[in-house]
Amino acid sequence: MQNKAENILNPCRYHLSPEAKKRLRWMYVIYYESDNNITTSANKIGISREWLSKLKNIFENNDKDPRSLEPQSRSPRNTDNRKRISEETEKKIIEIRKKHFWGKDKIASVVSGKHLLPVSGPTVNRYLHKHRLIDPKISMKNKQAYQNKKERDKRISLKMQARPPREIKDWKPGALIEKDMKLVPKVSFIGARYRFSEYFYSQHTLIDSFTRIRILALTEGATSRESKKAFDENKRRLPFPIAGINSDNGGENEGEFSQKLEKENILHFHSRAGTPTDNPRVERSHLTDEREFYQQGKIMNTFEKQKEEIMKWEQTYNFERPHQCSSSQT
């Protein structure tokens, strides 16, 4: 209807505000959908008959110029009679500001409470600007920070400090992916022999709750950046898109990794602290890794060899090893 209203009632294509465009649509309803009947049009639009009639008169008295539908400013034309604060109050505001450099609310509280001179925070702010006692750079910085906060609050957060609903766990492939990280011992060449060192690689595991397909990636660190890198690698190898992820509260699941999930519109659920049963499939798969892979001599002496062996183990786990959950099928 917007295009029809503008094509017919605004043929000169005047620039209109959103409010004026809305009122122009109302005029279209009157002339072309309600046969000039104000009552029918008002009921259809959902506004009062008196207000619609007044707008119609304004529109017609200005030769149906759509610019006449622009809302008028509500600011007073004459502020000479507006109540002002006393000179004593103004001096007290300036004095306290110069002495303590407090903000408007603290100054208003002290002036009203201690000195019994009623004044509000916005009034204090206006007089601080008047006397140039506010740094414009700081003021603009605070204003921008407030606007940014409002924008952040508008966004729907996809990060939830809660367990996933039971219904989505076995709903469809990719509906819920369980994620966890396992530490893999490094082997170092010490004293002419290979020995276990005090450092670890990080095995990042994703397992689909529905199909039990499991994807592995190995990184040299355990940061959120490494976790994000492993997630990108794992996601490419999954045969279906990811809708939600359930992880623990480790640092590798925050920061860049969490931002990556939010950017890709993936729900991020969290298990309770110290409760591995909230992520049961991936936790149980790590026990299988330990018993059937690492304890069977599959800890390599270089990162490249370890990564190669893990890829072979992933293939064995997914397509060769029988699983009890699927009646001993692969």
Automatic annotation (TrEMBL):
This is Integrase family protein. GO terms for biological process: DNA integration. The lineage of its organism: Archaea, Methanobacteriati, Methanobacteriota, Stenosarchaea group, Methanomicrobia. GO terms for molecular function: nucleic acid binding. It comes from the Archaea. Residues 62-86 are annotated as: Disordered. Residues 77-86 have a biased composition (Basic and acidic residues). Residues 169-330 form the Integrase catalytic domain.
